[in-house]
TrEMBL record:
InterPro entries on file: A-amylase/branching_C (IPR006048), GH (IPR017853), GH13_cat_dom (IPR006047), Glyco_hydro_13_N (IPR004193), Glyco_hydro_b (IPR013780), Ig-like_fold (IPR013783), Ig_E-set (IPR014756), Trehalose_TreZ (IPR012768)
Protein name: Malto-oligosyltrehalose trehalohydrolase
GO biological process, alphabetically ordered: trehalose biosynthetic process
Classification of source organism: Bacteria, Bacillati, Cyanobacteriota, Cyanophyceae, Nostocales
One Pfam family matching this protein: CBM_48
Entry's family note: Belongs to the glycosyl hydrolase 13 family.
Molecular functions per Gene Ontology: 4-alpha-D-(1->4)-alpha-D-glucanotrehalose trehalohydrolase activity; cation binding
Alphabetized SMART domains for the sequence: Aamy
Reaction catalysis annotation: hydrolysis of (1->4)-alpha-D-glucosidic linkage in 4-alpha-D-[(1->4)-alpha-D-glucanosyl]n trehalose to yield trehalose and (1->4)-alpha-D-glucan
GO cellular component: cytoplasm
EC number(s) from the headed UniProt entry: 3.2.1.141
Organism in which the protein naturally occurs: Nostoc flagelliforme CCNUN1
Glycosyl hydrolase family 13 catalytic domain location: 121-461
Length: 554
């Protein structure tokens, strides 16, 4: 039985709008504008799937004045991209508009708190499959097939590169055209929900990379009334990726900030519809509006309700102001950590003070363990193996240095993030074209050994809660030998000591005084016990090696 379904479009300063769709043989259905700035109409529809668009008299400066243009609904939750027309898709079931019929299975499962996270960043299109894979992969369902692998690695959060519908079938997703619709080349909305649900069933949180600085050039809002939502022109032409949302613009008549309203609706929709556990805010430095960020973070947390929700800014270079007492975000990407640790494991430099600054972010002015997200690399940078190879460092030598890197990553103050493939030594250079992970590398001893290091240190973080705190002391510094040692602890008696050799020399019977306590300690990476005396510990340090000692008291 047909029931009235409402269609609405917020376009407060446009003169006219009409609805066209498969249900009207693409003939215009007039829409009435209310005082709230919405055009509305209702159509009697049976249960089923329909395509539709709006026909609007545009206010955008690149059209003729009040020219009629056909635009996709800015709030369409599904897009028919295959037709080349970007029609919106609406589903009607039991007389109601729905996104899909997915039924959540694991909403009751407990999820880790922010300070417990080990995040794994992945790109859906490149994560599964690989050169040896005879089948086309790169969909949500193929990520589900890899969840057992991720559980073995020990991560407890995945950060998905952007999933909003973009033009074409391959992209990193930083060119979002449709903000409420998911990328159709990865699968359906129900497929995405199943992936998130399966993650929750395994105690893995899902963080989404969100683009709120800009949209792709022909996104619907640009066509409707460009300067109502966006800055007229780029504020920083060197860092411009498309029309930039104007968070300063205030509409006095309606008492709203239009860009706040739209992005707020987007974020509330994604959190409630897809049960997300966090958002990474891309290009926060370009958003450049802390009032908006404060507001949007509160909106996100209100929508998530009782669930933990982690808001992370990508602000390059990082700034403490974005996360500290008055700062809007919970955390931010710690780019100085990446640069400093990479330069040290590559042997480009040795600077004790810089090392200490990035290992203990409090020295840079950050307040706590969730204020920074540390990484050895991410989607914006080459894999560590590429950087080492560029310096003619290969084979065992390269893997040794990569293991030094992960020991620092997993024991520094902050939340660690792993870029997909880094955990087993993926060595393809960064490129904008498709670049699937080469899973066959795990069959090599060196690559497998690196994976085991990641796995061991990830599990150390989860079992030894000293690493959840912001407590750290640098207990030994030797600039001549290029050795640094530090200890982490919590109030329950858990303790970890890291001794790192950043030189190419083997240091036999190396003495570290000032050990936190005498007694038996367990060396985690090599799996053996060692006795510390009143005068500290004596150990052999290989070139570019870190040893991780765990107190046996806990």
């Amino acid at each position: 039985m047909a029931k009235p379904i409402e269609f609405s479009l917020f376009a407060p300063y446009n003169k006219g709008a009409a609805l066209i769709g498969s249900f009207s043989d693409w003939q215009e259905i007039p829409m009435e504008k209310g005082d709230d700035g919405y055009f509305r109409t209702s159509v009697e529809l049976e249960d089923g799937v329909y395509k539709y668009k709006f026909r609007v008299q545009s206010n955008s400066w690149f059209f003729e004045p009040e020219q009629w243009v056909d635009v996709t609904d800015p709030q369409a939750t599904d897009i028919d991209e295959l037709s080349g027309k970007d029609d919106g898709v609406i589903r009607v079931k039991d007389g109601e508009r729905i996104t899909d019929t997915y039924v959540w299975q694991h909403d009751d499962k407990p999820l880790p708190a922010d300070h417990e996270l080990v995040i794994y960043e992945l790109h859906v299109g490149d994560f599964s499959g690989g050169e040896d894979d005879p089948y086309a992969r790169g969909k949500y369902k193929h990520v589900i097939e890899k969840l057992d692998y991720l559980c073995e690695l020990g991560i407890n959060a995945i950060e998905l590169m952007p999933l909003k519908e973009y033009p074409g079938d391959y992209s990193w997703g930083y060119n979002p055209r449709h903000f409420f619709a998911t990328e159709s080349s990865y699968g359906s909305t129900a497929d995405l929900k199943k992936l998130i649900d399966e993650c929750h069933g395994r105690g893995i949180r899902v963080i989404l990379d969100g683009i709120y600085n800009h949209s792709e050039a022909s996104a619907p809002l640009t066509q409707i009334d460009h300067d109502y939502w966006y800055h007229h022109e780029p504020r920083d032409p060197d860092n411009n990726w498309g029309p930039e949302f104007n968070y300063e613009h205030y509409d006095e008549k309606l008492d709203i900030h239009p860009a706040w309203k739209f992005i707020g609706e987007t974020i509330r929709f994604w959190i409630s519809e897809y049960h997300l556990d966090g958002i990474r805010y891309d290009a926060a430095r370009q958003i450049a509006n802390y009032d908006f960020m404060h507001w949007i973070v509160q909106e996100a947390k209100k929508t998530a309700s009782m669930k933990p929700f982690y808001n992370v800014a990508e602000h390059i270079p990082e700034t403490t102001s974005i996360t500290n007492v008055d700062g809007p975000m919970d955390g931010c990407w710690h780019d100085s950590f990446y640069h400093c640790i990479l330069e040290h494991i590559c042997g480009d430099t040795f600077d004790l003070e810089r090392l200490k600054d990035v290992i203990d972010c409090k020295r840079q002015g950050f307040l706590g363990a969730t204020n920074v997200v540390n990484y050895l690399t991410n989607h914006d940078h080459n894999h560590v193996m590429v950087e080492l190879g560029n310096r003619e460092i290969f084979n065992e030598e390269a893997f040794r240095r990569a293991k030094l890197g992960v020991a620092i990553l997993m024991t520094a103050v902050g939340v660690p993030l792993i870029w997909m493939g880094e955990e087993f030594g993926e060595y393809k250079p960064k490129q904008p074209e498709s670049s699937k992970i080469d899973w066959t590398l795990l069959g090599n001893d060196l690559n497998r050994s690196l994976f085991d290091s990641y796995k061991g240190l990830t599990n150390l973080r989860k079992s030894n809660h000293a690493l959840y705190t912001e407590n750290i002391d640098f207990i030994h510094e030797n600039p001549e030998a290029k050795v640094l040692a530090y200890t982490r602890w919590n109030d329950e008696g858990s303790r970890v000591v890291v001794i790192a050799n950043f030189s190419e020399n083997f240091l036999g019977d190396y003495h570290v005084p000032n050990f936190p306590s005498p007694g038996t300690w367990h060396e985690w990476t090599g799996n053996y016990d060692v006795e510390a005396g009143d005068d500290g510990i004596i150990t052999d340090l290989g070139p570019y090696e870190a040893k991780v000692f765990v107190s046996q008291l806990y």
